[in-house]
From TrEMBL:
PROSITE patterns xrefs: POLYPRENYL_SYNTHASE_1, POLYPRENYL_SYNTHASE_2
SUPFAM superfamilies for this protein: Terpenoid synthases
Species of provenance: Staphylococcus equorum
Cofactor(s) in the UniProt record: Mg(2+)
Catalytic activity annotation: isopentenyl diphosphate + (2E)-geranyl diphosphate = (2E,6E)-farnesyl diphosphate + diphosphate
GO molecular function: (2E,6E)-farnesyl diphosphate synthase activity; metal ion binding
Organism domain of life: Bacteria
Pfam family, one: polyprenyl_synt
Protein name per the record: Farnesyl diphosphate synthase
A cellular component annotation (GO) from this entry: cytoplasm
CDD domains in alphabetical order: Trans_IPPS_HT
EC assignment: 2.5.1.10
Metal-binding keyword on record: yes
BP GO annotations: terpenoid biosynthetic process
């Protein structure tokens, strides 16, 4: 049931994403570059997580659609920029040539910039949300994607390449780089549904464990993942001399760390009031734990 629900949400998200970047009168063709990455596929796990959390809290996920779209658009912009030569210098993303390989570097940079600002346009144009809620969402997404969140984590990650870092620094990188957008997914639903504070606190902790799970699994997949399923080459972390959970803890240690955060995430859900059906959020933990891409 959970998988069917996720698939239906992904279909709805993809349909709405396909209409977010219409042609403009400027004749710059930048929209084609934006849509190329936006419609390149992907698991859509962040918007799905937002909608499933909101559904659990309020039984009404549609009020979170604009936030879900904005979140996925921010994530997409970050991938375009991450793939550029000064950063990860990747030729393929999701099994297709990266944006800058198709459209050139300058257009890829501007397409990413345009997507970032489009995300906030979509949220603020949502007439189903109160202005107070929209301000909360914009503030939260600004933090999650900015210099104290995703961008800051990426900066610390780049700064740390080629040097030896400890586990605390590695977790600091990934709590910001990967974890903040996943936290936004859960906490945006909290902003919209406004549950009691104890519920909000448990869900925030749940989201933090999810963020670390996601990155630990990424590091493990870079060792033993299937390139055809990942849509990109494995072994890039070793090639780029990056510190990872595997390089610091070994494969067994990284797998133990993954299990620790999975167990902690389940515990957060177990402590929620019995009135909440946590099945869908439990399935997200399982998905993070078992994913192959």
């Amino acid at each position: 049931m959970a998988n069917n629900k996720m698939n239906n949400l992904i279909e709805e998200i993809n349909q709405k994403l396909s209409t977010t970047v219409p042609e403009s009168s400027l004749n710059t063709n930048i929209e084609e570059s934006m849509r190329y990455s936006l419609e390149a596929g992907g698991k859509r796990i962040r918007p799905v997580l937002l909608l499933l959390t909101l559904d659990m809290l309020s039984n009404e996920y549609k009020s979170g659609l604009s936030s879900a779209l904005g979140l996925e658009i921010v994530h997409t912009y970050s991938l375009i920029h991450d793939d550029l030569p000064p950063l990860d210098n990747d030729d393929y993303r999701r099994g297709k040539p990266t944006n800058h390989k198709v459209f050139g570097e300058w257009k890829a940079i501007l397409a990413g910039d345009a997507l970032l600002t489009k995300a906030f346009e979509i949220i603020t144009n949502d007439t189903s949300l109160t202005d107070t809620v929209k301000i909360k969402l914009v503030k939260r997404l600004s933090y999650a994607s900015g210099h104290l969140g995703m961008v800051g984590g990426q900066a610390l990650d780049m700064q740390s390449e080629g040097s030896s870092i400890d586990l605390n620094t590695l977790e600091k990188i990934h709590k910001a780089k990967t974890g903040e957008l996943l936290k936004f997914a859960v906490m945006a639903a909290v902003d919209i549904a406004e549950p009691e504070q104890a519920v909000a606190d448990l869900l925030e902790t749940y989201s933090e464990h999810l963020g670390l799970m996601f990155q630990i699994k990424d590091d493990l997949l870079d060792i033993y993942g299937d390139e055809t399923k990942l849509g990109k080459a494995v072994g890039s972390d070793i090639e780029n001399d990056k510190s990872t959970y595997v390089s610091l803890l070994g494969q067994t240690g990284a797998e133990e760390k993954l299990k620790f955060h999975a167990d902690a995430a389940y515990q957060c859900l177990n402590e929620l009031p019995e009135s909440y059906n946590t099945q869908d959020l439990e399935s997200i933990i399982e998905l993070f734990n078992n994913r192959e891409s």
